[in-house]
Specification:
- With about 375 residues, the chain is an alpha/beta fold.
- The protein has two domains: about 270 residues, Aminopeptidase (3-Layer(aba) Sandwich); about 100 residues, Alpha-Beta Plaits, CATH 3.30.70.360.
- The protein is built from nine helices and 16 strands.
- It has an eight-stranded mixed sheet with strand order 1-2-4-3-5-16-6-15, sandwiched between helices. A four-stranded antiparallel sheet has the order 10-12-8-13, with helices on one face. Strands 7-14 form a two-stranded antiparallel sheet.
- Helix 1 packs across helix 9 and helix 5 runs antiparallel to helix 6.
- The termini are close together.
């Protein structure tokens, strides 16, 4: 099947590039991907492929059966939401929705999986089992589309044994893919803090209780606690205490992120953050509200299943083109799939220095070497049936 998959990847390449470019031109934000969903469904209809829709509102599921459909059930997953970023690329397929951009490669994820679907649909008499294709909305925004799709039964009827997903990586050159067994990505929690004091004239200290002082100590104390924790990140990215040179504000608002690789430490840290908040509040006789918006869990690739995928990738691409990945402190809601069944989340190299394709994910100049789409669809198809 390897040679057939390579042949069909070449044959379908131009069509898949066109699909990716159309999606890139028409990005939509998380939980608002109505036209994107309709576009994917129009492609499936044109290929005479049945689907189920309505998962997490805009999600789509395809159940593709080969020979002996009940012998094995594998799922492939691709996300299709975009980010609130103004694109700065000078390309013919630049975003037409101003201020919204596929800056995380979800257009490439979906296009690649559609390519894999077309390949496997045309070869379904040559492989065993059932393959579910999960087109998922809202990866970029809590609570995420994965959790909702799972709750709505996307991994059931028939029950999925394993899930595979790929994600673009511009730091990795086109032609290569990367894997990591075990823990790969961090959990993510959003932090929202309101420090409520008493404002007043800066020249009359007795008239106010300055929330800026308390907020400063709070940030320093929290940062000091997490500073030496190698497997966690605490960061405050927003401070708003609008006053002036002689005006003390009534309150200060903070926003930040907390990430961890270990779920037990994650929960312990939540408790410790609340203890530090209480200590600072008592010290300054001030009210502090900490809201920890719990996000995605850490992403753990099943070790044995991922080792199997690594060996298959080496067979498909050659050993030198399959690399070991370092741990990342970024987060992914694919972790919900990985917590549900043994799964593998790997990276598709999309960078090309010679073409100037060097910009990172979530930036206004991110783009991919579209040759990666040929590898993306072919490898996904090969992993799904091997």
């Amino acid at each position: 099947m390897k040679e057939k998959i390579l042949e069909l990847s070449d044959l379908f390449f131009d069509e898949i590039v066109s699909i990716r470019r159309y999606m890139h031109m028409h990005p939509e934000l998380s939980f608002q991907e109505f036209e994107t969903s309709n576009y994917i469904k129009s492609i499936l209809k044109s290929w005479d492929i049945n689907f189920l829709d309505g998962y997490a509102n805009t999600g789509i599921l395809v159940n593709l059966e080969g020979k002996e459909p009940s012998s094995r059930v594998i799922a492939l997953r691709a996300d299709f939401d975009a980010l609130p970023i103004l694109e700065e690329n000078d390309v013919e397929y630049k975003s037409k929705n101003e201020g919204i951009m596929h800056a995380c490669g979800h257009d490439a994820h979906t296009a690649s999986m559609l390519g894999a679907l077309k390949i496997l649909h045309q070869t379904k008499d040559h492989w065993r089992g059932t393959i579910k294709f999960i087109f998922q909305p809202a990866e970029e925004r809590l609570p995420g589309g994965a959790k909702q799709m799972i709750e709505e039964g996307v991994l059931e009827n028939p029950n999925v044994q394993h899930v595979i997903a790929q994600h673009v990586l511009p730091e990795l050159e086109v032609g290569k893919v990367g894997f990591r067994c075990g823990t790969y990505m961090a959990s993510t929690d959003e932090l929202y803090v309101t420090i409520s004091g008493k404002g007043g004239h800066a020249a009359i200290p007795s008239s106010y209780n300055n929330p800026i002082i308390a907020s400063s100590e709070l940030v320093l104390d929290l940062n000091q606690f997490f500073n030496d924790k190698a497997d966690a990140i605490f960061a405050i990215g927003y401070i708003d205490g609008t006053g002036s040179t002689n005006i003390i504000p009534n309150e200060v608002n903070l926003m930040g992120t907390f990430r961890a690789l270990d779920e037990s430490f994650r929960l312990e840290s939540h408790n410790h953050m609340n203890r530090i908040v209480d200590q600072v509040a008592k010290k300054y006789n001030i009210k502090i509200d900490l809201n920890i918006k719990k996000g995605y869990p850490a992403l753990n690739n099943d070790i044995q299943f991922t080792l199997n995928q690594i060996n298959k990738a080496k067979e498909f691409l050659g050993e030198k083109n399959v690399i070991d990945l370092p741990i990342r402190m970024t987060a992914e809601d694919f972790s919900y799939f990985a917590n549900a069944v043994p799964s593998c989340f790997y990276r598709l190299g999309t960078g090309n220095k010679d073409k100037g394709l060097i910009h990172g994910l979530h930036t206004s100049k991110f783009n991919i070497d579209e040759d990666s789409l040929k590898i993306g669809m072919g490898l996904m198809a090969f992993l799904a049936i091997s």
